[in-house]
Amino acid sequence: MASNTSDIKLNNVKIIPQQGSVFTLKNSDGYEFNNVLCPDGTDNFLSLEGDKTTNIQLANTDTYNAKQAVILGNGVNGDAVKIE
């Protein structure tokens, strides 16, 4: 989990969690996921929490393997994440 962070770029990243979300962000801003692996059988790729979470971008990242691509938690605005 990343909390209260900003302006992070993840390029060509491969994380395979044993359970839960691949990434969880809380009150975070300005994340860019580029060509990030979504492993087979993933529950959810990205879990967002907190009313300060905004400007999250997924580019060249296929979330097809996740049961749910993005979970928007309490306080997260629906336009906080952009999938290209």
Characterize the structure shown.
The protein is mostly beta strands. The protein has one domain. 0% of the residues lie in helices and 48% in strands. It is built from no helices and 8 strands. The chain has strands at residues 2-3, 6-11, 21-26, 29-34, 44-49, 54-59, 68-72, 81-83. The strands form 2 sheets. A 4-stranded parallel beta sheet has the order 1-3-5-7, with no helix packed on it. Strands 2-4-6-8 form a 4-stranded parallel beta sheet, with no helix packed on it. It starts with a strand and ends with a strand.
Low-confidence stretches: none
Strand order of the largest sheet: 1-3-5-7
| Helix-strand category | mainly beta
First-last Cα distance: 23 Å
Mean pLDDT: 95
What is the strand and helix layout of this fold?
Blueprint: E1 2-3, E2 6-11, E3 21-26, E4 29-34, E5 44-49, E6 54-59, E7 68-72, E8 81-83
Parallel strand pairs: 1-3, 2-4, 3-5, 4-6, 5-7, 6-8
